[in-house]
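User: I'm designing a mutation panel for D-glycerate dehydrogenase and want to avoid disrupting the core. Could you give me a predicted structure to guide residue selection? Please restate the sequence first so the numbering is unambiguous.

Assistant: Good idea. Sequence first, for numbering, then the predicted structure tokens:
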Amino acid sequence: MKPKIYITRKIPDSTLQKLKEHCHVTMWEEEETPVPRDVLKEQLKTVDGLYCLLTEQIDSELLKEAAQLKVISNMAVGFNNIDVEAASEKGIMVTNTPGVLTESTADLAFALLMATARRIPESSEFLRTGKWKAWAPMMLTGQDVFGATLGIVGMGRIGEGVARRAKGFDMEVLYHNRSRKPDVESQLGVTYVELEELLKQSDYVMILVPFSEETKNLISEKELSLMKETSILINVARGGIVNEHDLYHALKDQKIWAAGLDVFEQEPVSLNHPLLSLPNVVVLPHIGSASIKTRIKMSELAAENLLQALAGNTPQHLVNKELL
Ligand code: DGY
């Protein structure tokens, strides 16, 4: 008998067809609206596998009645939306999709850095709203990227991708990570420093650590106060890592120069959020991995993880390895 699975959002058709070959599939058909929690809870009572996105909070309360659930396959590399401990207690495998999104996310991170440094969205708006009267020496001037110092907080796969791009711009790259990476240092010519040193020296600080209790509010008032007045903060990881209240004040009081944000504590971010009122903030709707090819690869990898688990094998990207 085919296993039953629930998919929490419309996924690419080719991936859906593949899943249908092996499973009885029920899918939340909406593209832009997340499945309501009570619908998901009801579905979880009877399915063997869950295919979900980072928009679903899979917590212990939701898992309570998931009597036959064997696997939660998250179509994302981050899995802070899932209570992994609660899943492990019930013997439910949790999987994610690392690797396939590395380069697209590094591209976006670098694009956001450049857009913020050179005030690209603001300049475009300036032209479109008829404010451009004449070329002027200091009109819409920004910060240089070429030859500047970049500090990467979290040297994982995406951090390495960003460092490779930065080297093409002749940047000095500093990094801070839980553990030092001598191989990466010699291959990419990057330098390990303590977080405090990184914040003091960098022209650009890029956040690339996963969200956890340990990294929550990692960048708050004290850390922001160590940055230069001309420096720029870029966050493409998760919202809660940077304290948004403290960031707002640092930007408003010109303690730092600008910020580029692809992620927020609450997503979608409210249009009334104070950060959106500042001209020196470039905002994006969590599109780090959003290239067509990469999103298809992520959907396929999430499907493979799910099918492997349901076939009784160890999925390639098992998060809770303690289950082995
Ligand atoms: C992830 O995969 O965790 C990103 O945030 C979305 O691609």
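For picking mutation sites, this is relevant: The chain has two domains: 4-98+292-323, 102-283. The longest strand covers residues 149-153.
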